[in-house]
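Record type: monomer structure entry
Structure origin: computed from sequence
Chain ID: A
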Amino acid sequence: MKSTDESVNPQHYASFGRWAAIYIIRVWNQVRMMQGVEPVSFNVGNALKYIQRAGLKPGQDEERDIAKAIWYLENRLHELNPEQYPDPAGID
């Protein structure tokens, strides 16, 4: 399967062209590492992805993508302070 295949790289992923979420996250992490800061977590990167493509995925509304972004951010808060923030995944 080629990376240009719609099933691998759907149109809503590239809706911002060069500024697709994967590129933004990559550059964001490069800047953070140059500053001596840890790269963004998986959860924060995924939240950005869902925010950026909110309402653009065929058959799904904006509310669903925003809810997914919030879920990933809640996961990150749990990673940072599990005593204060419950685990939204329900694993703990």
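Annotation 1: The CA atoms of residues 7 and 40 lie 27 Å apart.
Annotation 2: The two ends are 37 Å apart (CA to CA).
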